[in-house]
Amino acid sequence: MSLAADSLGLPEARVVTAADPAEFAYTVFHDRHPRLFAQVRHALPYGPAQLDALHRLEEETLTGTLQPLDPGAELAAAGDRAEWTEWGAPYFGRGLRWTDVPFLWSESYFYRRLLSATGYFAGPWRGVDPFGPMKADGLAGAAVDRELAAYGALDGMSAAERDSAVLHACVAGNQADLGFQLIAGAPVGVSLIVDDSAAIWAHLNEREPGRVNLVADNAAEELLPDLLLIEHLITTGRATSATVYLKPRPYYVSDAMTQDAVALLRRLVAAPGLAGDAGRRLWGYCTDGRVRFEAPAFFCSPFGFHAFPPEIVAAIGSATLTVFKGDLNYRRLVGDRFWPVTTPFADLTGYLPGPVAALRTCKSEVAVGLTEAAAAALDAGSPDWRFAGRHAVIQFTEVRR
Question: Where is the Damage-control phosphatase ARMT1-like metal-binding domain (predicted)?
């Protein structure tokens, strides 16, 4: 039983794996990952050693058994090889397929192995982001141009309309996940099936302003509205400062690292109109310390947020609000299990000591916080609503157990 169920008295729920061809997680290994391998092979001029390692990893994930990290493939100084040996002890050497182990664990390990295959930790390709060209294309693409231009519409809005626009833009931006686009194609718009945005603004308006945390998801066009939300909260006096949690290394194709945030900031500062004004204010908030970027190693581990280290738990407990962006962060926040959809969001996040909001486009099987009637209507009208990326939630709780 998960830590969430143990500590909160919740019923048992099956852990998500990629073993069942009828479930979405299976398609990640058998549809998304082969497309990803093709993109990575063509994105950079890798040599025979890297191309061969990528081919062998692809074959292992599709038809082989789960193998430990190859100690000859990277420097011992990579830092986490010993940890992965420990984390994989329940699985390595047991003849298990990748699809037999918890999906959250196997996906995380997949991206760690992919970095090894591309030489990220040793040799001439050390430190080269295999997803960098895809992120750069997103940053330079028309989607960012449209977002920057659309931001100008805030000039004619009331204060309440601006609040709504910047928050809902973050949810729409979650469709920019490059990994998701490997399956779904171009974004098609989202329908909110839970919207606690009024409660979020009431919470912020009724309290003394303090620090907010943002646990970021993807780079480029998704990170843009996230950073603009942070700027809006500080500029309107809802927050005194902000900590933005990023990934310390490439992860899940488009997950944002510090260099991705900096690249986006540079583009935002150079934008015309209101977006550029907001970008320059945000740059100033970074340089005066009101906005800080953090990239703890934990965020590239294979665990849910029940296993947060004490310093992150303390940062959540002392914040006015912690916002979790995206589907992966949602799975890690509530637990990657087939919870009954009526399980209260507050129950599954009650292990954290501060107010929590989740802004998430639904791209996986996990779904909670709905009524039975709402779930039944979705099942009848859109059977793939859990993972097709056309539905989204804004969920919030300040109730601590």
Answer: 29-373
